[in-house]
Amino acid sequence: MAIVIVDDTVFSLEVTKAWLKAAGYMDIITVKSAKELYRLIDGHSERGIVEVDLILMDIVMPEINGIEACQSVKKREWLVDVPVIMVTSRTDRNDLQLAFSAGAMDYIKKPLDSVELLARVRSALKLKHETARRKARELELLEVTHQLQAANERLQNLSFFDGLTGIANRRNFDQRLLQERKRSMREKNPLSLIMLDIDYFKAFNDTYGHLKGDDCLITVASLLVKTLRRPGDFPARYGGEEFGVVLPNTDDIGAAVIAEELRASIERANIEHISSPCADHVTISLGVVTRFQGHLDNPNDLIMTADRALYCSKNQGRNRVTI
Ligand code: GH3
Ligand code: MG
Ligand code: MG
Ligand code: MG
């Protein structure tokens, strides 16, 4: 980390450098013009990339003066936190005003006084290091915040989505059903619910193994998602090989059509199931219930009624819809 002195007068450069060295600052770089300073800070001098800690800048210099040079330094994003102390023989208030608006942090009057110079250098460096530490802490905090947000999202995902199929889980389903039931009461719209269950799935597992059984559950879930076209329709894994679909703003006729589409889409997928007594491929049984104004106001009643319809489908030979 270097202290850079910019001054067109060699005597000033040498005296300032000597004082700073005597005070224990070892890396002092002297340059005689703004142009030479730019070469240095942009890494074009023989020293290559230089880490600058502080700049002492003479104001009165030929060609480019110190105020302009300070402005130019502060335009470099990597130097915004590097303090610039202006050094001037002028006492013109206007000059000082300009120096501060150019981004200078302090100024010292010529002729220089070694005690004053060292005191101002020390305090500028202290402030710079404090700023750097604070920024590092802020960055760390930001990083931790991002990590927490990501962890939170992962947790949310785990608690609301089924790990195997990726669709909503039971908890998510219960919440949505409750919410949609309230909305249906408020807006006086019908609400439908489909419960569905894979037929002879135990036999499927016994024949093809549990891993193939898992694959089948994933396929069925994705077919449900694909077949439901309206954005409000909400499929979920209710548990095991049973799924639930919430259909907001849907009457019994609409729900029956959707249920039949779901049944047909699983049948069309033609997933081999040689041990099924009702077909040579995987099928599902479905139960549909619709809530109209003034009846089935309790979400549990809705689920129980849909379940009863589902078991009717099972009893009547499976692979069918009961309303
Ligand atoms: P039914 O037509 O009457 O519904 O007969 P079923 O064999 O499908 O019904 P049953 O309730 O007897 O069996 C359900 C099977 O689903 C048993 C269980 O091992 C299986 N199952 C539940 N969850 C999973 C799972 O996550 N993965 C796999 N592979 N199988 C599961
Ligand atoms: Mg000068
Ligand atoms: Mg089953
Ligand atoms: Mg079951």
Automatic annotation (TrEMBL):
<dbReference type="InterPro" id="IPR011006">
    <property type="entry name" value="CheY-like_superfamily"/>
</dbReference>
<dbReference type="GO" id="GO:0043709">
    <property type="term" value="P:cell adhesion involved in single-species biofilm formation"/>
</dbReference>
<dbReference type="GO" id="GO:0000160">
    <property type="term" value="P:phosphorelay signal transduction system"/>
</dbReference>
<protein>
    <recommendedName>
        <fullName>Stage 0 sporulation protein A homolog</fullName>
    </recommendedName>
</protein>
<feature type="modified residue" description="4-aspartylphosphate">
    <location>
        <position position="58"/>
    </location>
</feature>
<dbReference type="InterPro" id="IPR029787">
    <property type="entry name" value="Nucleotide_cyclase"/>
</dbReference>
<dbReference type="Pfam" id="PF00072">
    <property type="entry name" value="Response_reg"/>
</dbReference>
<dbReference type="GO" id="GO:0052621">
    <property type="term" value="F:diguanylate cyclase activity"/>
</dbReference>
<feature type="domain" description="GGDEF">
    <location>
        <begin position="189"/>
        <end position="323"/>
    </location>
</feature>
<dbReference type="InterPro" id="IPR050469">
    <property type="entry name" value="Diguanylate_Cyclase"/>
</dbReference>
<keyword id="KW-0597">Phosphoprotein</keyword>
<feature type="domain" description="Response regulatory">
    <location>
        <begin position="2"/>
        <end position="125"/>
    </location>
</feature>
<comment type="function">
    <text>May play the central regulatory role in sporulation. It may be an element of the effector pathway responsible for the activation of sporulation genes in response to nutritional stress. Spo0A may act in concert with spo0H (a sigma factor) to control the expression of some genes that are critical to the sporulation process.</text>
</comment>
<dbReference type="GO" id="GO:1902201">
    <property type="term" value="P:negative regulation of bacterial-type flagellum-dependent cell motility"/>
</dbReference>
<dbReference type="Pfam" id="PF00990">
    <property type="entry name" value="GGDEF"/>
</dbReference>
<dbReference type="GO" id="GO:0005886">
    <property type="term" value="C:plasma membrane"/>
</dbReference>
<dbReference type="InterPro" id="IPR001789">
    <property type="entry name" value="Sig_transdc_resp-reg_receiver"/>
</dbReference>
<dbReference type="InterPro" id="IPR000160">
    <property type="entry name" value="GGDEF_dom"/>
</dbReference>
<dbReference type="InterPro" id="IPR043128">
    <property type="entry name" value="Rev_trsase/Diguanyl_cyclase"/>
</dbReference>
